[in-house]
Amino acid sequence: MISSSILGTQGVHSIDATLAQTDFLGDGYVFGTLMRNQYPNSIKIELLPSPQLTQALPSLATILQACVADGASVGFLLPFPLESALAYWQKLRPALAANEIKILIARLNGETVGTVQLHLATPANGRHRAEVAKLLVHPKARRQGIASQLMQAVEALAKAEHRTLLVLDTCTADHAERLYQSLGWQTAGIIPEYALSTAGSLCPTTLMFKILA
C-alpha cells in the first residue's frame, strides 16, 4: 500500500500559490495539476516548506525505500531499511532551512507518491545553475505521468529562482534517461563504472543538462 500523505492542508505550499505571478508556464501546464484531462486521477505538485519536513518524513522515506527496493540507482544499496531512508531525509533539514535545496512532492488523490529536489548552486560564479536530484515516484503510482509533471514543475521552480542551467546525472540506459531525453535534456557525457547498482554491480552514469529558455 502506498503510504498515505500526512501533510496537512496547511503543511505544504501549493506551487500555484508560490509562483502565481510567473509567466513561464508551458502550454497546458498549471501548477497543482498538469493536463488534468489527460490523466484519470488528480495529481498535485506542491512545494514542501522546511518547517513541515518532519511531518513529511514517513511518506518521503516510504517512497525512497520502495524505489531503492525496485532497483533505482539513487545512491543507496540493498538492504535498505526504512530507518536509513528516514535518516537520509533528516540530513536534508539544514540545507532545506538554508534555502540551499527545494523539495517538491507529488500527491495523487491526496496521497504523497513522488518527489524531486532542486539543489541551488551556492558559489558566486554558479548562481545561474542548479542540480535536479532524487526524482522518485512510488512504484505503485507509476505510468501516470507523475515523473514528467515533477520534472516540469522543478524546471519552472528553477526559473523562479532565476536559474538558467540545470544539470543531473542518471544511470545510463535507464528508463529515467529516456524520460529526460523526451523532456529536452541533452547528454554531456558518460562516465563508465561510475556507481554501484542496488545489486552491487558497477554501472555507467550519464551526465545531462538543460538550458532553460
Question: Could you characterize the architecture of this molecule?
Answer:
The protein is an alpha+beta fold. It has a single domain, classed as Aminopeptidase (3-Layer(aba) Sandwich). Helix content is 28%, strand content 31%. It has helices at 15-18, 53-69, 82-91, 93-97, 146-160, 175-182, and strands spanning 13-14, 29-30, 33-34, 43-48, 101-108, 111-120, 129-137, 165-171, 186-196, 202-211. The strands form two sheets. It has an eight-stranded mixed sheet with strand order 1-4-5-6-7-8-10-9, sandwiched between helices. A two-stranded antiparallel ribbon has the order 2-3. Strand 7, helix 5 (146-160) and strand 8 form a beta-alpha-beta unit. The longest helix is centred in the first third of the chain and has 17 residues, at 53-69. The radius of gyration is 16 Å and the shape is globular. Mean pLDDT is 85; it is low at 1-40.
How many helices? The count is 6
Name the CATH class.
Alpha Beta
Report Rg: 16 Å
Unreliable residue stretches: 1-40
Q: What fraction, in percent, of the residue positions are helical?
A: 25-40%
Count the beta strands.
10
> What's the overall average pLDDT, rounded?
85
Distance between the termini: 40 Å
Task: Give the overall shape, derived from the CA principal axes.
Answer: globular
Strand content: 25-35%
Major sheet size, sense and barrel closure: 8 strands, mixed
The CATH topology comes to: Aminopeptidase
Which structural category fits the helices and strands? alpha+beta
